[in-house]
Amino acid sequence: MKLTAGRNAGFQCLVLSLALAACKPPPEDRQSMPLGDPAKGFAAIERVGCGSCHTIPGLRWPKGTVGPALNGMAERALIAGKLPNRPDVLAAYIRNAPALVPGSAMPAMPVSEVEARDIATYLYEKGAE
Question: For the residues of the chain, what is the DSSP string, one character each?
Fold first, then answer.
């Protein structure tokens, strides 16, 4: 009887080990966008005036408070409280927030796809500082 119980426990451990090994790895706890240029992203942030609504790490002035502060973007789970925080989603949101979140107070921004990617890179890389 004990031998059967031991085999059962061993089988259960094997099944549990296989199930854990088959799981996907946990998601990255920080986002990054390796193809972007954070320096160009910062320049775009300054050019289009993101600081008029947001406090942005590294931007001395202006420090707007209409929108949320943009520090810690890499660690956030959601963008605008509704969208998954992924680099492609952040870049798309930067370009046209109302298209992704109807009723968003953030306007569509006059930036190219490349500039939006660079801004996202800046926010992910420098936003945690």
Answer: -HHHHHHHHHHHHHHHHHHHHHSPPPPPSS---TTS-HHHHHHHHHHHTGGGTS--TT--S----SSPP-TTGGG-SEETTTEE--HHHHHHHHHHHHHHSTT-SSPPPS--HHHHHHHHHHHHHHTT-
**Token pair in block for residue 91:** 């870049």
Dihedral of the alpha carbons of 94, 98, 99, 101, in degrees to the nearest 10 = 90
Give the whole-angstrom CA distance, residue 90 versus residue 108: 13
pTM given for the model: 0.75
Per-residue model confidence (pLDDT) at position 93: 97
Q: Tell me which residue of 80, 113, 79 sits closest to 95, measured CA to CA.
A: 113
| Type of residue at 15 | V
Q: What is the pLDDT of residue 54?
A: 96
What's the pLDDT at 25? 47
pLDDT digits over 41-51, tens only?
999 999 999 99
